[in-house]
Write a structure and sequence with these properties.
The chain is mainly α and about 325 residues long. The chain has twelve helices and two strands. Helix 10 crosses helix 12.
């Protein structure tokens, strides 16, 4: 596939030492669509045809980016078009702010605008964590497993099947993306998975809110639960955007300051870095579920505070590592 441009070469902010194929998203998308077409009943498939069709926009947006790297704003354009169709035509949007910031009811216009923003943020946050072997697939497996099981238990088998299809493709892909990887997701895969997870997040929040209070499957802190599932890409994206802005550079400019970059430098292994981040993600989901008896006013700050503290420890360890490394090089006469 290298002659078609589906190759990620080393250099710059890349941390792999040899070229890798970035075609991983293509077979994943084909496998996902094939699974849904085979297993989804015709009546439900007819209901979902527009939703699945919108994913083609994201799919081709990703392919174009993998081939020609057209730029951030052209990349965002395809996402905005797809997100607009999802909210305005498919009717998948946040029904309320559910008490977040003390706000419940909002107009349909603002509901759609906030939903479009949410979809774009989650999609790009997931895209940005695809920086080391196995990480994006592992985080996607955590999220799709959670959503698929919860949708199945609540009777939303249509969405459960979609998430299970996503889970299956991610597990199959991980075999080839684990260190040392043979293939990357590329924007074709990461945008597709991120976009799908963003939609499942909105459906999860709306559905949870509509369940009876006495329903054992209803989460009290459903926004906190949703954040905990996606905390790794969301927190890391906010973190690097703030750090870049404080340094006076464009928040859209890529660099090697992501959490996974720092962790790999400390661990000296993509596999160890991926496992640490994945288990932290699972731990935060578990903590959010343990605190579910409390409202989002408690759960959301708790999850974000724990994440913030863990990253502070990581950055302290990294700075100590850099100082120690410089001292060793100075003693050897290299500095």
């Amino acid at each position: 596939m290298g002659k078609f441009g589906f190759v990620d070469s080393p250099g710059g902010r890349k941390i792999h030492s040899s070229s890798r194929l970035t075609i991983g998203g293509f077979p994943m998308f084909i496998g996902f669509i094939g699974t849904v077409l085979i297993w989804l009943p015709f009546e439900e498939l007819n209901e979902l045809k527009l939703l699945l069709g919108v994913h083609l926009i994201i799919f081709f947006t990703g392919i174009r980016d993998d081939l020609s790297n057209p730029g951030v704003f052209q990349k965002l354009l395809g996402q905005i078009v797809a997100a607009t169709i999802i909210t305005f035509i498919c009717g998948i949007h946040l029904d309320s702010l559910f008490g977040l910031f003390g706000i419940f009811e909002i107009s349909k216009f603002w509901s759609n605008m906030i939903s479009i923003f949410t979809i774009i943020v989650i999609t790009n946050a997931y895209n940005l964590i695809d920086g080391i072997d196995g990480l994006a697939a592992s985080i996607g497996i955590v999220a799709s497993t959670f959503f698929s099981v919860w949708f199945y238990l609540t009777g939303l088998e249509m969405y459960s099947l979609i998430c299970f299809a996503t889970l299956g493709t991610l597990i199959a892909f991980l075999r080839f993306n684990w260190e040392p990887s043979k293939v990357f997701l590329g924007d074709t895969g990461s945008l597709f998975i991120g976009f799908l997870l963003s939609i499942m997040t909105i459906i999860f929040i709306n559905t949870n809110y509509s369940l009876e209070v006495s329903d054992p499957l209803r989460f009290t802190s459903y926004i906190g639960i949703a954040i905990s599932v996606l905390i790794v890409p969301l927190y890391d994206t906010i973190r690097v955007f703030i750090k870049r802005s404080l340094r006076g550079i464009s928040p859209m400019r890529p660099d090697k300051t992501h959490i996974h970059h720092v962790l790999v430098k400390l661990c000296r292994s993509h596999a160890r870095g991926t496992l640490i981040i994945t288990f932290v993600n699972l731990g935060l989901v578990f903590i959010a579920m343990l605190l579910d008896q409390y409202s989002d006013v408690i759960v959301v700050p708790t999850i974000t505070s724990i994440t913030f503290s863990l990253v502070l420890v990581l950055e302290y360890r990294y700075k100590s590592f850099i100082k120690k490394r410089k001292l060793e090089l100075r003693n050897k006469g290299h500095l």
